[in-house]
Write a structure and sequence with these properties.
Distance between the termini: 35 Å
Strand order of the largest sheet: 3-2-1-4
Order of helices and strands: EEEHHHEHHEE
Oligomer: single chain
Strand content: 25-35%
Largest sheet: 4 strands, antiparallel
Number of helices: 5
Number of strands: 6
Helix content: 25-40%
């Protein structure tokens, strides 16, 4: 999926505006990002932040800024959030009105990860953890939750369609 993040710092309004757009219609795979126009994107989310809160988060570090920017309506994946946070931090090093547009293609990011052999090796090495015999205990039929033993979902009776007809 191709996405666009429009980031604007307004000194007059004392706010930071982040708009998230995405292409929701089918587009040819070979279509270049540069050939896309604003009308190709649909607005998904629009978030406004107080510049004082943003400045305070920047002073505390990138992780604090990311925690401020993310919420239940705006939660980009880590790679995107890193780029957004870097852009916001760069905007706040300069005075005056600022605007930045990030266009990201999931495909490029996924292909980039596949082309990093060190990352693949690291994951492979960590997955070679020795098996422990105690793991069989995790697959027992009864589960203990808050001190109470409850039957595993496999022990429940099957759904009766006649008893509960669909609407």
């Amino acid at each position: 999926m191709k996405q666009k993040f429009q980031i604007r710092k307004s000194v007059k309004k004392r706010e930071l505006l982040i708009q998230e757009y995405a292409i929701i219609e089918a587009t040819p795979r070979r279509k270049e990002l540069q050939s896309l126009h604003d009308e190709n994107f649909a607005l998904l989310s629009e978030q406004t932040y107080n510049t004082q809160a943003v400045k305070k988060s920047i002073a505390e570090g990138k992780e604090s800024l990311i925690a401020l920017l993310r919420n239940r309506h705006f939660f980009p994946v880590g790679v995107y959030m890193d780029r957004i946070a870097d852009s916001v931090m760069a905007m706040f090093t300069l005075k005056g009105e600022q605007s930045k547009e990030l266009i990201i293609d999931d495909r490029d990011i996924l292909l980039g990860i596949q082309n990093e052999p060190d990352l693949v090796e690291k994951i492979t090495d960590e997955s070679e953890i020795e098996s422990d015999d105690d793991t069989d205990d995790l697959f027992e039929n009864d589960l203990e939750v808050d001190g109470k033993v409850t039957p595993n979902s496999a022990d429940h009776e099957p759904f009766d369609e006649e008893k509960y007809p669909s609407a």
